[in-house]
Amino acid sequence: MRVGFWAIAAAAAVVAVSGCSTASTGKALPESAPVEAPSGIPEFESKTSAAPSSSAKGGAGLDLSKYEANPCGLLTSAQVAGLAALDDPEPGNTGGSPSCVWNPVDLTKGARYTVVLPEETFAKAVRFAESSSVKEEAVVGGLEAFTHSPVAGGKGRCTTIVAASAETTFQVMVSVTNGSLPEAAAACEVSRKVAALVVETVKG
Is the pLDDT of residue 34 over 50? Predict the structure, then answer.
């Protein structure tokens, strides 16, 4: 069994996302002060807060099993082309979980997107993210989701957790190194839009 994924280390730049046909919405929760954590994993250090239900909204959820061996298949080439000028995807392992990273050709002008398939429930993932400065309940592609960031306002760094099923989740991290980019303030919105693309891919 893989080790549970507590964070996605990322540093890159956000670009505007277009062409998303799957709706995603977010509802802000009360803001709390960010909590510092070791080893670059501030998102997942709190272990005390209650979490929303892990049930999917409006369906039986998604089967992510076939993507465990090929996490880069969660975004199609056409979807990636609509994001920006990106290098070839890099499959890997993040926190013991299958992952894929799409880096921009120019880190100062583009975005870095990371998709991870942790072996944990939605409730567990959200519980460890609740110390974040930004917290938003959301619905992405008809599935329950939770967007969070350790940065005030979510500027330049944001993650969306999606309840793929009662037992599984996937997470999309968007991060920005060049904080002067106008898109930096939209990191949370962009993470939900990319998560919606993942849902489209899996649903076929």
Answer: no
